[in-house]
Amino acid sequence: MYLSKQDIQSMQKVERLNLINSLSGVKPANLIGTKNQNGNENLAIFSSVVHLGSNPALFGFILRPQGEVRRHTHENIISSGVYTINFVTTDFIQNAHYTSAKFDSTTNEFEKSELTPMYIDHYYAPFVKESPIKMGLQFVEEIPIKSNGTTLMVGQVEHVLMPDGTLNDNGHLDLGTLNIAGISGLNTYYSLSKKDRFPYVRKNFSLEDLKSY
User: Fold this and answer.
1) Between vectors from CA 159 to CA 183 and to CA 150, what angle results, nearest 5°?
2) What DSSP state is assigned to residue 181?
3) Domain containing 142: what range?
4) What does pLDDT average to in each consecutive run of 10 residues of the chain (213 residues)?
5) Domain total in the chain
6) Which of 131, 151, 133 is nearest to 142 (CA)?
């Protein structure tokens, strides 16, 4: 099967959305928690969180074009300067997906999705109690992507919360044991399982070295 640019552009909107979103493969399923200046909590699911660097520890995520639809996550991050990124597990994917509904700014998505806000001392943004891995971030910058009107939001990790014993040797996380979920497209969820782990590849490594590792 072959699809040209013209074929893709001529697709029905929903079909095109599903195809293009699926072409990036399975992506992390994360809930981003924020709170506005009036104390109203907000929770929204994202599949665009990406690691940007380890020193400093930076993560980014993509916001869709603002347009006529208000992006409460964006507004709350700009006003408060902090937000949380929470891993979704296969145990509560229905609850997490429900936050994709376009609620108004006064609606508490934690209550609507039956998920539990959790706070740590002196940190304004809410975490998701049900999430096994949670990060608290300080907003650093937003980078507009001119070609389609989206925005890359960049934050620095200030807090990490996870169960005791989660870290393996050398700081590795085994996401499979925590039932972490992934997303393909807009609404298809996957479970993750660890298949293998390999050493850092140097130029004197051969493919046979990796096969026998």
Assistant:
1) 45
2) E
3) 26-211
4) 94 92 92 95 96 97 76 93 97 95 88 96 96 98 94 97 85 87 92 84 85 80
5) 1
6) 151
Is 121 inside a domain boundary? yes
Tokens of 155: 């934050």
Listed in sequence order, the residues at least 6 apart from 197 whose beta carbon sits closer than 8 Å to its beta carbon are 172
| Angle at the Cα of 193 from the Cα atoms of 188 and 195, rounded to 5 degrees | 130
Is residue 14 situated within a structural domain? Answer: no
Structure confidence at residue 196 (pLDDT): 82
Cβ-based neighbour number of residue 173 at 10 Å: 16
CATH assignment at residue 80: 2.30.110.10
Burial class (CB in 10 A: 0-12, 13-18, 19+), 5: exposed
Tell me whether residue 182 is in a domain: yes
Q: Is 189 part of any domain?
A: yes
Spatial distance between the Cα atoms of 128 and 88, rounded to a whole number of angstroms: 9
Beta strands in the chain (DSSP E): 27-28, 30-35, 41-46, 50-54, 57-63, 82-87, 117-118, 127-128, 134-145, 150-161, 181-184, 188-191
